[in-house]
Automatic annotation (TrEMBL):
Domain Protein kinase: 17-268
PANTHER family (alphabetical): MITOGEN-ACTIVATED PROTEIN KINASE KINASE KINASE 20-RELATED, SERINE_THREONINE-PROTEIN KINASE YBDM-RELATED
Single GO term (MF): ATP binding
Ranges that cross the membrane: 351-368
Protein species of origin: Actinacidiphila oryziradicis
Basic and acidic residues biased stretches: 268-284, 291-312
Record has Cell cycle as a keyword: no
Protein name, as recorded: Serine/threonine protein kinase
Annotated region described as Disordered, given as residue ranges: 268-344
Residues reported in the UniProt entry to bind ATP: K45
Compositionally biased tracts (Low complexity): 329-338
CDD domains noted in UniProt: STKc_PknB_like
């Protein structure tokens, strides 16, 4: 949040708080950064002198401060102190570090669908607590939402809107941007929690597009559009557009409740964070991560063989090619040694075959020699034995 030096006309002490810087100024008063004696920092708002003279304003101011005390902590800046009887009424809330939603979008640009849904879910949950306390904010807009490290916080709970909707079109009395006001406020009708829902939808649209859904123009033009024209949601993400459209319904009865908004936006935020709602390009969802690099050369051929199913042409028979074995992670035995790999097993098989063949050959030779050995041992000389039939030899 931007801070400015105190001006000459600014007070230095209000109540028990010493003022250090200016935080901002509006149609109802000036907001200062202050601190008490213990060093607790507060955002202290001092009402303008001309409004302090309005008794009706003082009564409404007191009623709104009382209601703000009933809102549970966590969704807003906690009310610390207030003086309703001072010459210039003031109130102090817990200082919330962090930029407003308006400043964040203006400085950093539009938010993603996941960010808008996440902030919206927390804000809707906060509005549930506000409405349960019997308070209607009546001035919800991006500049009244602070983005603290612990989550968004809603500020200015209806106090700055206490002059009523009937004076909205008068210069100097309109509070907030007309592009965030509900049609019933423009007509001067009674406000309800649905009034905050309309402003809530316009706020989500601003976070996603950096503009009011009713465009820009004079107060009179903007108020006319709010009552008679449909909002422009062209830049709102598809995941959020239907919900924002429902919030901006002209009839308060047609708008969703804050409980429904909290539940639905929580679902959208979870889905968008997981990437299921990623933007599409040419009808193709955006990839969640970089695609794996495809191999080239011989590796490409092996890749195709492993990942492509080949179908034989009709009338032909193709012998299926054995799949290429995938590398395996080495596994060690309990003793810490590597088990034999495919090459060692093949070597061992070849060795067994070699030894077996050698033994068979040796046994065959031994058997042959064994058959001839007894014949020589019986004195076989190539001559017929005595008493055997003899064939006549030539010359005898």
């Amino acid at each position: 949040m931007a801070m400015m030096r105190l001006r000459r006309e600014d007070p230095r002490v209000v109540g028990s708080f010493r003022l250090h810087r200016r935080l901002g100024a509006g149609g109802m008063g000036v907001v200062y950064l202050g601190a008490d004696k213990r060093g607790q920092r507060v955002a202290l708002k001092v009402i303008r002198p001309e409004l302090a003279e309005d008794q009706e304003f003082r009564s409404r101011f007191a009623r709104e401060v009382s209601a703000a005390r009933r809102i549970r902590a966590g969704c807003t800046a906690r009310l610390v102190a207030a003086d309703l009887e001072a010459d210039r009424p003031w109130f102090a809330t817990q200082y919330v570090p962090g930029p407003s939603l308006h400043d964040k979008v203006a400085e950093e640009g539009i938010l993603s669908a996941a960010e808008v849904a996440s902030i919206g879910a927390a804000l809707a949950d906060g509005l549930v607590a506000v409405h349960e306390a019997g308070v209607v904010h009546r001035d919800l807009k991006p500049s009244n939402i602070l983005l603290s490290p612990k989550g968004p916080r809603i500020i200015d709970f209806g106090i700055a809107w206490s002059t009523g909707a009937s004076t909205l079109t008068h210069v100097g009395t309109a509070v907030g941007s007309p592009g965030f006001l509900a049609p019933e406020q423009v007509r001067g009708a009674a406000v309800t929690p649905a009034t905050d829902v309309f402003a809530f939808g316009a706020t989500l649209a601003y976070a996603a597009t950096a503009d009011s859904p009713f465009g820009q123009g004079t107060s009179e033009v903007m108020l006319y559009r709010v009552v008679h024209e449909e909002p422009d949601l062209a830049g709102v993400p598809d995941a959020l557009a239907p919900l924002v459209q429902a919030c901006l319904a002209k009839d308060p009865e047609d708008r969703p409740s804050t409980v429904q908004l909290s539940e639905r936006l929580s679902e959208i935020a979870t889905r968008e964070a997981r990437g299921h709602g990623a933007p599409r390009r040419d009808g193709v969802p955006k990839a969640a991560g970089p695609r794996p690099e495809r191999p080239t050369g011989r590796r490409a051929e092996e890749y195709a063989e492993q990942h492509t199913e080949r179908r034989p042409s009709p009338g032909t028979t193709r012998t299926p090619r054995p799949p290429v074995p995938l590398p395996r992670t080495p596994v060690r035995t309990p003793a810490g040694r590597r088990p034999p790999g495919p090459d060692r097993r093949l070597l061992r098989q070849r060795l067994i075959v070699f030894v077996t063949v050698t033994l068979l050959v040796a046994l065959g030779i031994a058997a042959a020699q064994g058959c001839q050995g007894p014949a020589r041992g019986l004195g076989f000389t190539g001559r017929p034995a005595a008493g055997s039939a003899q064939f006549p030899l030539p010359g005898t």
